Amino acid sequence: MEINLISDTITKPTHEMLQYMFNAEVGDDVYKQDPTVIELEDTIAQIFGMEAGLFFPSGTMANQTAIKLHTQPGEQIIADKYAHVYLYEGGGASFNSGVSFSLLDGDRGMITAEQVAGAINDPEFYHNPLTSLVCVENTTNKGGGACYELDELKKIKEVCVANNLKFHLDGARIWNALIAKKQDPKAFGQLFDTISVCLSKGLGAPIGSVLLGDKATIHRALRIRKILGGGMRQVGYLAAAGLYALDNNISRLAEDHRRAKELAVVLNKLDWVAKVEPVETNILIFTLVPNLSDHVLIEKLKQKNISISSMGHGKLRMVTHLDYREVMHTYVLETLAKL
Ligand SMILES: *Cc1c(COP(=O)(O)O)cnc(C)c1O
Q: Which positions carry N6-(pyridoxal phosphate)lysine (predicted)?
């Protein structure tokens, strides 16, 4: 039994999902003639109460498209210091859009309206980059799966409106937040100019993200996606996996959250663990006591067929997901307790 807690992206499509993909009706999506892609885009747009959606091969490309939509070269994005768009997209914001970041020191990857207001450059002071976009992440990745309160996001939105800034949500794991906080996706749809969501994380699809926005914005996004090389042909086979995931794999995210919390309870009792960050969803981040190195623990667990990852700076990460089942969980809890 190989147990992989490195990421929720490692899941493989089930037989049922593959069967659903196999039966998809497809067309050339570059001509917008793939009915399954259109169904997926419309379905997710409706879930969030937004006008339109656009299918992307990756969350990175969806986020990069959003940044391109909302900025001009030389301008600046406000985001948390842990933001995926800053840390993990290969420098794409500067490569694709020629923009810089004003990074905020948030709480577990989450920023406040007050911090945002304090980071906006005076648009009349032309020495500074012009601030044009605020980007938040929900749930946070490097922040350990933390979820925003809607009230804080509403306050950030007010700051954006008052200062003529666009507001983008990197919602790669928004599904986890919706389940954990019992929030209404339409409440998110009302706040953001664009939202990106992933189907390939907790939901178990092999590939796929969707960018949401109003019709005019998504129409502009079509050209940017084409430029980035994301226009794909009979891609309904992949969109079908997303539709299957939406129908079957959302409510079960609560199981991933329970298991992550149970892992945290066990880790908290161990004398070689220094600190376990609060667990809200499926990501668990912890640190070791000073005389124990990350590599030693990772190796020890590897010998017991359990893979976990290091995030650098002494932080270790475990992510629960669809392919991490109850038997595996029982084994990991026992193994950790005995280690
Ligand atoms: C995974 C992830 C993405 C998208 O990553 P891809 O690997 O390109 O699909 C974007 N934002 C966050 C917060 C993520 O965790």
A: 201
Q: What is the CATH number of the domain that holds 330?
A: 3.90.1150.10
- CA of 89 from ligand 1 middle (Å) equals 8
Question: Would you say residue 313 has pLDDT above 90?
Answer: no
3-state SS string for 99-153: CEEEEECCECCECCHHHHHHHCCCCCCCCCCCEEEEEEECCCCCCCCCCCCHHHH
Q: What is the CATH number of the domain that holds 218?
A: 3.40.640.10
Q: Which mutation among 111, 147, 198 tests ligand 1's pocket best, with the greatest number of atoms within 8 A of CB?
A: 198
Distance CA 38, CA 10 (A): 26
Dist. CA 52 → ligand 1 center (Å) = 21
At residue 211, the 3 state secondary structure works out as: strand
Cα 17 to Cα 10, 150, 172, 205: the distances in Å are 15, 33, 20, 8
Residue 37's H or E segment, with its range, is: helix 35-47
One domain, residues 124 and 188: yes
pLDDT band, very low/low/confident/very high, at 312 (cuts 50, 70, 90) = confident
| Number of domains within the chain | 2
Among protein residues, the one whose CA lies closest to atom 15 of ligand 1:
141
> Ligand 1 centroid vs 172 CA: distance in angstroms?
6
Please tell me the distance between residue 291's alpha carbon and the centre of ligand 1 in angstroms: 33
The residue nearest atom 5 of ligand 1, judged by CA position, is 59
Domain hosting residue 288, numbered range: 3-9+252-338
Residue where one domain finishes, among candidates 203, 231, 248: 248
